[in-house]
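Records of this kind hold a single protein each, on a pair of labelled lines. Below, a sample record shows both lines together.
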Amino acid sequence: MNGDLVLVALIIIGLIGRSPIITTAACLLLIVKLIHLERYLPSIERRGLEFGLLFLTLAVLVPFASGKVQVKDVLGAFTSWTGWVALIGGAAATYLNGKGLEMLKVDPQLIVGLVIGSIAGIVLLRGIPVGPLMAAGITAFILKILQLFTDR
């Protein structure tokens, strides 16, 4: 029952914070629990991130498939300083995402802080949630910096 209350709380927080992804995810998990399909929760946990990343990658690659991005646009990424900065930003983001994924595998309860922090960012800073993976990557980076300064 405790997990159900947390999911209901996340639904309410997602509604208040105008985060349809958090609200929908919590609703789907609550439905899975209420119709007694808990046996699928380990599979969702194990493969859900992979499927999410697959669909995110598909969405990002659609402009290539639809012809909205041409070869000249790709070459532009290598011939302008803004293109090089974008390449570095993309590489840094994927690196941070990888570190965030590692951290979430070791310490999965951090997701609560990441979700609440993301909702606070939506409500207070008018931010746009891109998901817990980037938030976890930034958290891993901040923790690494704090470890350097505290000698831990």
